[in-house]
Amino acid sequence: MKRIALFALTAATLLAAACTKDKEKAPQPKTPEQLLSANVWHMTALTANPGLQTTGGTTVTDIYPFIPACTKDDTQEFAAGGQFKSDEGASKCDPSDQQTVTGTWSFVKTGNDNGVNVLVNGNQIRFKVLNVTDTQLQMSTADDLFGIGSGTSVTYTLTYTK
């Protein structure tokens, strides 16, 4: 009986030690900054709020269908270490455009909000990170991305997938 009790005690001790080691080695969830920099992102949706008025007088909030195909294949990369890269993809809208434009980015946390500042060619754009996972990035900005200068404050929401 002592052997069985000793065996049971030894087994329980080893099992407890193994469980403790497993907990210590469990991977920590990735931070939003790590998720952002883990992928090359491709835009899949773009909305405007309030909507923008077309030349025909219609107001639209889903502006992704109006983006030229030569822009839809572009990619954005927020590399670890703060390097930003935007690539024209397989097709360029203007053959004289550079294939790749580089700059810097920084992650900014304000309270519960996560943000990204991107600086390219002296121009800074501020984004609020709405959601970031291993496969999707959603950000918004009130910066005038398209140089429309409509006089109205417009918030653009951009959705990217890896």
From TrEMBL:
Keywords: Signal. Residues 1-17 form the signal peptide. This is Lipocalin-like domain-containing protein. The lineage of its organism: Bacteria, Pseudomonadati, Bacteroidota, Cytophagia, Cytophagales.
